[in-house]
Amino acid sequence: MKKTNNPLLQKEYTHRLGAIPFDKIKTEHFMPAIEVALAEAKASLAKIKENKEEPSFENTILAMEFGGELLSRVSGIYFNLLSAESDAAFKALAQEISPKLAEYSSQVVTDEVLFSRIKHIYNAEIKGKRAPKLPRKFTDKDAIKKCERYRFIKREYDSFVRNGAMLSPEDKKKLTEISMELSKLSPKFADNLLGATNSFELHLTKVKEVEGIPDSALKAAAHFARQKGKKKGWLFNLQPSSFMPLLTYCKNREAREIINKAYGSRAFNDKFDNQENVSRIVNLRTERAKLLGFDTHAEYVLKDRMAESVITAFDFLNRIYEIAYPVAQKEIEETKAFARELDGLKDFMPWDYAYYSNKLKQKLYDFDPELMRPWFKVEDVIEGLFKVANKIYGISLKEVMDVPVYHKDVKTWEVYDANDSYLGLLYLDLFPRETKRGGAWMTNFQKQGLSSKGMLRPHVGIVASLTPSSEDQPSLLRMDEVRTIFHEFGHALHGLLSDCTYRSLASPSVLWDFVELPSQIMENWLMEKEALDLVAHHYQTGESLPEEYLSKMLAAKNFHAGIANINQLRYGMLDFAWHTFRNEFKGSVPDFERDVTERFRLMPNINTSIISSSFAHIFAGGYSAGYYSYKWAEALEADAWSLFLEKGIFNSRIAESFKTLILARGNSFHPMDLFVAFRGRKPDADAMLRRDGLI
Fold first, then answer.
1. Is the pLDDT reported for residue 1 higher than 60?
2. Which long-range contacts (CB under 8 A, 24 or more apart) does 358-365 make?
3. What Å distances lie between residue 132 and 144, 146, 479, 488, 669, CA to CA?
4. Phi/psi at 424 (nearest 5 deg)?
5. Beta-strand (E) ranges in 181-231?
């Protein structure tokens, strides 16, 4: 590579940890870097194809892994920033970058010469041979590497077959065209959703209009108003940290209605409308599935999941539905009755649910989660989270100030294991801004595993939109925001504790319906006093969370569990409905959605609100035909957690087993084999239902 001033094209980043030089990277650096990286990747593939030696794992599969390193690195940085810190000019690049990458990827997996080499290796090392069994001792590095090699070859071969290697030239060309168009549509969907989210603000100026909203939330809203140039009043937007306190506590029903409808109608029948994008994405996915020999996109996706078939996933969700829906109906009727009794409310609507269910919870359990907010100052929560992780896995984290970051809000930590060996680098980016998409996620800046320069340790990030600080109070979090941090840190641990040979198999790149196990199990420690005492300290006095708060929280933990389950099932089944089409979808997006979700309805339909136009998980993320994974992994997690409860939540032997068998192994083994090795048996599918009090 020629010498260049483009920081993205440095052979090696000069920071002592190899950290990305975010402080030097500019928007104009990306397209040139992508072009150079693509050329380098193509040249590497040409060299592999021209190799006259017998195809081998090293000169083909591993060479492909190493040859695409620069492209993977540059594109990874771009798409991470696209979600976390991007303006209009930066977003516009996605319409150029995405199709180039999609075309290249499609050309690779449909290349006849490459496939013939991989097929040769597959036939020599895999075909007709049983997969190596899990080693009894994971200290046996040779046995582990043998298993990883088998898995890597098999998955590489399967990936080529799944993605069109055996198609006719005409169908390969069509597949590439579909991939290129889809690559433009997902960023467009995400851009529309962010635009719709950022376009709404609710400015309230009278005390009566905000009656009931907690003081901490009002201070944040007043601070936001001043930031936006409002001389008085309170400003709310569609970030959860802003609108959720209003929906939950505001006595002003009109304000609740306005913000509920605004959130429900994002990117629907407005200038950011996503309906056309939904239809086109669905139809392209259906067309691609048929080209690849599947009746539906869902069948294509589920072929490479733990569930293995749509029928298995459907049966799993439907069993939860049969148990949870009658409970949810009873819960909603109790809430309606309470609203009538309290305020004479007869026309109970969706914007009334959070408000009255919270008041009902207060009546039944004398518990209001808002009262806990002073005990959850964000800095204390992070420090406590790290202490919990130290007690579980023996790891330690040291904040570092010399790592370049892409925004001033981002903080960084070095992570070490119990033997003081370096594990990786953690970035935390926790507060909302208009250049960041909503929600929370974990991401990889650098994956663990073997590279052309040797073994790499991971650089991972947690990105969220939590309650920010204001002039007169620090960032004080709601309990559900604390749970979000624990959840995403579970994903981060999956990446940081990865111990695989090959980056393609490294955590958290596991089968999609297994990926939420490490994140969801991490939430459980929050409900245990021994762990919560490390996290919750009053931001003014330093006192621990009163025991009565924990007792009340535990007593109320299954409050409206039926409704919570039905809400998740509604998303999961809507996802499947969109992805089980056998023919082109030509109908109305809202009409189709309402038909599908009718069986999950608990409250009156609002014509101005739909889910699909803002369902980024499946239309702009990786969850298409995979949203069921949250419930699937929750069932695994509830069963796994029961072993911690039985043996002790900080039991070092159980924690080491979970780390070694689940977190460290990545995709080197089938996840069911790993789960059975950890739990001693196959998952108990009812563990989640028992924990939720539904059976």
1. no
2. 358/248, 358/249, 360/334, 360/335, 361/556, 361/559, 363/338, 364/556, 364/559, 365/552, 365/555, 365/556, 365/559
3. 9, 8, 44, 32, 9
4. 165, -175
5. 202-204
Separation CA 638–CA 685 (nearest Å): 9
Which contiguous run of DSSP H or E holds residue 443?
Answer: strand 441-446
pLDDT at residue number 140 = 86
In this prediction the pTM is 0.95
Mean pLDDT score, 167-190: 97
Reduce the secondary structure of 39-81 to three states and give it as a string.
Answer: HHHHHHHHHHHHCCCCCCHHHHHHHHHHHCHHHHHHHHHHHHH
Give the rounded percent of residues in the chain with a pLDDT score beyond 70: 100
Q: CA-CA distance, 619 to 171, in Å (whole number)?
A: 24
Q: Residue 146 corresponds to which amino acid?
A: K
Tokens linked to 53: 């030696």
Predicted confidence at residue 2, as pLDDT, reads 60
Query: Tokens in use for 12?
Result: 């090696």
Amino acid at 560: H
pLDDT at 197 over 60: yes
d(CA 588, CA 598): 15
Instruction: Judge whether 148 counts as a catalytic residue.
Output: no
Q: What is the dihedral of CA 9, 15, 16, 20, to 10 degrees?
A: -70
Cβ atoms of residues 462 and 427 within 8 Å:
yes
Determine which one of 85, 148, 488, 516 is catalytic: 488
pLDDT in tens, 122-145: 999 999 998 888 888 877 888 999
DSSP state, residue 377: B
Query: Rounded CA gap, 117 and 160, in Å?
Result: 11
CA–CA distance from 477 to each of 222, 380, 533, 573 (Å)?
Answer: 17, 10, 16, 31
Band (pLDDT 50/70/90 cuts) for residue 635 is: very high
By three-state DSSP, how is residue 427 classified? Answer: strand
Q: Three-state DSSP class for 449?
A: strand
Q: Tens of pLDDT along 571-600? A: 999 999 999 999 999 999 999 999 999 999
Tell me if 575 sits within 8 A of 618, measured CB to CB.
yes
**For residue 250, what pLDDT band results from cuts at 50, 70 and 90?**
very high
Q: Which domains does the chain have, with CATH numbers?
A: 7-193 (1.10.1370.40), 200-264 (no CATH), 374-557 (1.10.1370.40)
- Tokens, residue 529: 């006093």
Q: Which of 669, 664, 663 is nearest to 150 (CA)?
A: 669
